[in-house]
Design goal:
It contains 32 helices and 29 strands. By secondary structure, it is of the alpha/beta class. Among the domains are: 180 residues, Valyl/Leucyl/Isoleucyl-tRNA synthetase, editing domain (Isoleucyl-tRNA Synthetase, domain 2, Alpha-Beta Complex); 38 residues, no CATH class; 145 residues, Isoleucyl-tRNA Synthetase, Domain 1, CATH 1.10.730.10; 91 residues, hypothetical protein PF0899 fold, CATH 3.30.2320; 65 residues, Helix Hairpins (Orthogonal Bundle). The strands form 10 sheets. A 4-stranded antiparallel beta sheet has the order 6-5-14-16. The radius of gyration is 36 Å and the shape is globular. The relative contact order is 0.08. It comes from Bradyrhizobium frederickii.
């Protein structure tokens, strides 16, 4: 029996155990052995992570797809797991050591430190997995993977070795994002661009061969920079090829101030004649754009800042080469000075020699490490790279050909923009936690890449014997005796970028490179649900690796969801204090209410403005469903064996069957098209408006009346429609629906495994021919459901029942609307005249007179050839219904009230439009503030439209 009050926490705890004990979510269940697979891989959350609102949205949408396809009979694998999150996890453990005043990782040594990280992972690594379970995620938890599991690590090593063998992984000296605090390269995703108020320094660079004088502009070239400290590494000055001011100077040299080095003036499109002086200093070792300019013109790369962000001059051979006599003293003065302290001192020195023309305030974006908070330094260093340009070509072609499609489709442009301009991918990180690079170095620095150390030793010994560095006899002895080769080769200390291992996620989690049956069955996957911010970092790299190693795209569809913002549209951040914790919402309102809120607001291409009030509203929706099911139970509503809703005789019951079939089609097609908000909106309307507000209310006289065949049928239909609701709602609100299914539906088995109301049937030969002509295949199971709706079971329609019950509902709704507009008290009953009614209306009206009078608060219903004078006329499905309100309302007072409301609406519209017409406001105000004004205007316009309609009706009553 259903409890009186809906208590989400009790239900969620109980249902989680039921699902787990029954292995409901296990892929490869015996009953699904012959079913078509449906696979989704979870975007692996960081092992350090805790459930945030982005996770809640992402996993809710994935779960809707998985539960939907599971109910459609597919063999669903939702592959769960976590990412080792190299830099984040290492920081967590290092912080713990510091807080506990224990030795740091350097003091501990690599082996001991890694033991400590694994220990932390064992203790705390399951936090987010347990939180995902609280959300209701129906993953196959028995298959949970971790990116540093033994099998996944084997896949990582194999991929690295094979790509290196093919020349697609190599070592190179290039610029990277360098974190001077964490002392490692980091990815672009770990860099935050922060607006900083700084300065723009205009510096005079003397022209070679001319006597420098600050008063003589012909003796120097002015360059502008935000980073004077990097000028020590300048190796060129760039001007635009078409800039007439500098054309005669191209190819000549300027003298680098303070240093005295001669550097060339080059012509390059990178220089913008409209900005600053039109000339820019080129520091190839300290700026990503300058690096490319330097490559185009063969400029030297001189790094003058070290790993820790200090000037590196005294022992820097690159810097000291070709310096004029005496420049070394300057190097000693500034060596090992922090870059920002050096900036101030260098500017002072430049000013003293007249090399500073002017200094201007300048606000610009400066890259910061998202974890360390330090300013990121473009740093020239040896790193391992993937030839992403080569790997990207098949991945681009796969999306262009439609093998993989993006939803919404506009994200394909973003994908192409990134992929067609892709740079080499830096995959090495100067960390200890992660997949250590499988490369070993010989005594002369020769690199040996291999899957194991033994294999690397074998390659190294063979190489050095061949080079006659060691004798063949020494080689044999070293091969047989580990002690004799100790230290002969040393392993690269760096680890791989976390995105390298997660790029293999769709197939490494299935057991690749072993010949695992799961790889054949579940790869490629069907859909990937992810955020737009990792299209390049993760989606693109999975595409590249999947196509290269599996020869197939890793997924056929990529659904890109939007951001979850606060209720005003602002991005959530700890600094703003507007972060909403999904776990708090689950505690207060239940997981189902949160899930339904996120789904209902997940419109394609539109960010979600999350207000707690919306979650509370959907908690009320759950309560409404709960109470409707209790009402059905208390009225002995149950589905008898063999009940067929299509054979119902009562018009009301045929109408609910019609509406149920219509909703089933809407929900099914919306989920298939990734229109989660439309699917949620359709089921919400059906539950609240159609089933609860109308069907149950219209059925009450029968249910509460004497026993009869009509009552028996209505009881069965109330229960049948309830069961259909539970099925349709289950992917969105799994906990409450599973509980109600168990308590009220009295079926064998779980709702999670029950059949979806709309299933494909066996096609006829004619339908197969149509399928072949449409899709090129005769297999309906591999054809998208929306291609052939002819296979749908939910095809019941009854236009006559819809016309009759629809007329009753529309009539009552419009009368209620007029009563609300005119401020007619509930106790005041009004008359209704059906004017010029058709024979059909004259025939159906008596059947519903009592219901209409009760629900519309009417005193009488009559027929007339025309509407009485002074009556408000309503057009209901093409026919006139009139409400004689003369004497019922004070027309003058009502007009005064409506006029006041109209004036207020006009004022609100004018106020909002005035702000939106102000270009400065639109340009400078926060995005969410501007959007709020737009919403205020739209709300006021909608209010005005309703008031105009009410005033027009009032004219009829006067």
């Amino acid at each position: 029996m259903i409890e009186k009050n809906y208590q989400p926490a009790d239900i969620e705890a109980r249902m989680s155990v039921v699902w787990e004990d029954s292995l409901a979510f296990k892929a490869g269940r015996p009953d699904r052995r012959d079913a078509v697979p449906f696979t989704i891989v979870i975007p692996p959350p960081n092992v350090t992570g805790s459930l945030h609102m982005g996770h809640a949205l992402n996993n809710t949408l994935q779960d809707i797809l998985c539960r939907f396809e599971r109910m459609r009979g597919r063999d669903v694998l939702w592959q769960p797991g976590t990412d080792h999150a190299g830099i984040a996890t290492q920081m967590v453990v290092e912080r713990q050591l510091m807080e506990r005043q224990q030795p740091g990782r350097r003091e501990m040594g690599r082996a001991k430190f890694l033991e400590r990280v694994w220990q932390w992972k064992a203790e705390s690594g399951d936090t987010i997995i347990n939180q995902l379970k609280r959300l209701g995620a129906s993953c196959d938890w028995s298959r949970e993977r971790f990116t540093m599991d033994e099998g996944l690590s084997k896949a990582v090593v194999k991929v690295f070795v094979e790509l290196h063998r093919e020349g697609l992984i190599y070592k190179d000296k290039r610029l990277v994002n360098w974190d001077t605090k964490l002392l490692t390269a980091i990815s672009d995703l770990e860099v935050q661009q922060t607006e900083v108020k700084g300065h723009l320094w205009y510096l005079r660079y003397p022209i070679e061969g001319k006597t420098f004088s600050p008063e003589d502009p012909s003796s120097f070239v002015v360059v502008a920079t935000t980073r004077p400290e990097t000028m020590l590494g300048d190796t060129g000055v760039a001007v635009h090829p078409e800039d007439e001011r500098y054309q005669k100077l191209v190819g000549h040299n300027v003298i680098l101030p303070l240093v005295g080095r001669k550097i060339k003036i080059v012509a390059d499109d990178y220089s913008d004649p409209e900005k600053g002086s039109g000339a820019v200093k080129i520091t190839p070792a300290h700026d990503f754009n300058d690096f490319e300019v330097g490559n185009r013109h063969g400029l030297r790369r001189i790094s003058v800042i070290d790993r820790e962000g200090c000037l590196d001059l005294v022992d820097n051979e690159d810097y000291l080469r070709d310096l004029p006599e005496g420049a070394g003293e300057f190097a000693e003065e500034f060596d090992k000075v922090d870059r920002f302290a050096a900036r101030k001192r260098i500017v002072e020195r430049l000013e003293s020699f007249g090399f500073v023309e002017r200094i201007e305030p300048h606000t610009h974006m400066v890259p910061h490490g998202d974890r360390s908070g330090t300013v990121i330094e473009p740093y020239l260093t040896d790193q391992w790279y993937v030839d992403a340009k080569t790997l990207a070509k098949p991945a681009i072609a796969a999306v262009r050909s439609g093998e993989t499609t993006f939803v919404p489709k506009n994200w394909e442009k973003t994908y192409f923009d990134w992929m067609e301009n892709i740079q080499p991918w830096c995959i090495s990180r100067q960390l200890w936690w992660g997949h250590q690079i499988p490369a070993w170095y010989g005594p002369d620095g020769k690199v040996f890449v291999a899957e194991t150390e033994e294999e690397a030793i074998s390659h190294a010994l063979g190489y050095y014997v061949e080079q006659e560095v060691i004798t063949a006899e020494q080689g044999r002895e070293m091969a047989l005796d580990r002690n004799k080769r100790e230290g002969f080769i040393t392993r690269d200390e760096d680890v791989l970028d976390t995105w390298f291992s997660s790029a293999l996620w769709p197939f490494s989690t299935l057991g690749w490179p072993e010949d695992a049956p799961e790889v054949q069955r579940y790869y490629p996957t069907n859909a990937l649900v992810t955020g737009f911010d990792i299209i390049f970092f993760w989606v693109a790299r999975m595409m590249m690796m999947g196509l290269h190693f599996m020869k197939e795209v890793p997924f056929s569809t990529v659904y890109i969801h939007a951001l979850v913002r606060d209720e005003k549209g602002a991005k959530m951040s700890k600094s703003k204090g507007n972060v909403i914790d999904p776990l708090n919402l689950i505690d207060e309102y239940g997981a189902d209410a949160l899930r339904f809120t996120l789904a209902a607001m997940a419109a394609q291409g539109r960010d979600i403005k999350l207000a707690t009030s919306r979650v509370e509203g959907y908690r009320n929706f759950a309560t409404k469903l709960w109470n409707a099911c209790r009402f059905a139970e208390m009225n002995q509503c149950a589905v008898p064996d063999g009940f067929e809703p299509a054979k119902a005789k009562e018009t009301l019951n045929r109408w609910i069957a019609h509406e149920s079939a219509h909703t089933t089609r809407e929900v099914t097609e919306a989920i298939e098209a990734y229109r989660f908000n439309d699917a949620a909106g359709s089921i919400y309307r059906f539950v609240w408006n159609v089933y609860c507000d109308w069907y149950v209310e219209l059925a009450k006289p029968v249910l509460l009346g004497p026993d009869s065949p009509a009552k028996d049928e209505t009881r069965a239909m109330v229960a049948w429609a309830r069961d259909e609701i539970l099925k349709l709602l289950h992917p969105f609100m799994p906990f409450i629906t599973e509980e109600l299914w168990e308590v009220t539906a009295k079926r064998d088995g779980l709702l999670a495994l029950a059949p979806w109301p709309l299933q494909r049937t066996e096609p006829t030969s004619e339908q197969l021919a149509m399928l072949a002509a449409t899709t090129g295949t005769t297999d309906p199971l591999v054809s998208p459901a929306w291609v052939l709706p002819i296979f749908d079971h939910a095809d019941f329609t009854d236009p006559a029942a819809e016309a009759e019950i629809g007329w009753v509902i529309d009539l009552i709704t419009q009368i209620r609307s007029v009563r609300a507009e005119m401020n007619i008290p509930p106790a005041t009953l009004t008359a209704l005249v059906l004017a010029g009614a058709s024979a059909e209306t004259r025939e159906r009206a008596p059947r519903w007179t009592d219901v209409i009078k009760r629900m519309a608060r009417l005193s009488d219903i009559s027929f007339a050839d025309r509407a009485p004078d002074g009556a408000v006329q309503l057009l209901v499905r093409g026919e006139v219904a009139a409400l004689p309100l003369k004497g019922v309302i004070d027309v003058a007072a009502e007009r005064t009230r409506l006029d006041k409301e109209m004036a207020k609406a006009d004022a609100d519209i004018k106020r909002a439009e005035s702000k939106l017409a102000n270009e400065k406001f639109v340009a400078n105000a926060a995005e969410e503030v501007v959007e709020e004004e737009r919403e205020k205007r739209e709300a006021a316009l909608a209010r005005k439209a309703k008031l105009l309609e009410a005033l027009e009706r009032l004219k009829q009553a006067s």
